[in-house]
Structure prediction request, 142 residues.
Amino acid sequence: MSEKVLLIDDEKDFLEVMSERMKNRDIDVTTSSSAKDALGLAASGSYDAIILDLQMPEMDGLQALEKLKAINPDLQVILLTGHATVEKGVQAMKLGASDVMEKPADIQVLTEKIKKAHAKKIILVEKETEAKIRSILSSKAW
Prediction:
């Protein structure tokens, strides 16, 4: 089963190149050049990882990260930035980012991080399912 990723960046050339490189690695990629549009995609879809640019014009990556985590706290969000600072990295991790990477991102390293996010999502879904089953079983009198 291939990983499902939402790639968000305001640089259209970057989106095209990265999505093509991911598709060549059998990753199912949806792209958005707008953080606001991506919030709708994240709310309506199920993604193993969200790759999010830190510097965007209408809403920066940290604001988008906060809103994404409000939609679903279990989302695995990896921030990409060409303007990395320790302060922004720490802030992103406090807000719930899975990781922060500098641009240009090494596609092999990014692919490994996506696979880890996918594995973590599977574990979270299994725990939720198990909790639902326990709840159903404990509510029945049989």
User: Anything to note?
Assistant: The longest strand covers residues 4-8. The helical segments are 12-23, 35-44, 61-71, 86-94, 107-139. The mean pLDDT is 90.
